[in-house]
Amino acid sequence: MENKLILPENYKQTYDKIVKMIETAKHKVFETANFQTVYLFWHIGQELKDNILNGQKAEYGKSIVKNMSKDLEFQYGRSYEMSSVFRMIQFYEEFPDFEKVATLSQQLTWLGILFYGKMVSMYQKKYWMVLLKEIMELI
Each residue of 15-52: b (16+ CB within 10 Å) or e? Predict the structure, then answer.
C-alpha cells in the first residue's frame, strides 16, 4: 500500500511565488553582469585609446594593441583576442560619453551594442532603439 502525500492548499501558490523569486533574481544577475561587461569593455577602450594610442586611430598602434590583446587573452581568455580589443576601442570612439553608454547598456547587451555601433545612419539607430524598447516591454 502506497502512502499518498497530501500537499497543503497553498502549495501551488507558494511554488509559483518561489519560481518568480528565482526568475527575478536570475534576471537581475544578468542585468548586473551585462552592465559590468559593458562598463569594463568601454573603460578598456578608453584606457587604450587615451593612454596607449594617445588619441590616434587604432590602426596607428595596431602592433601595440595586438601585443596587449595577446597578453590579455593569455591571462583572461578569448574575450580579449585582438578583434575584441579593437572593438572595445571602437566602442569607446563611437560612444565617448559614458552616461549614454550606461543608458544604452540598460537596453542592450554587449553584442547588441556592437551591432548598434555598426549601423550607418541615425535613422537605423533610432529604429533599432524603438524596436528594442518594444521587445523589452514584452519581456
Answer: eeeeeeeeeeeeeeeeeeebeebbeebbebbbebbeee
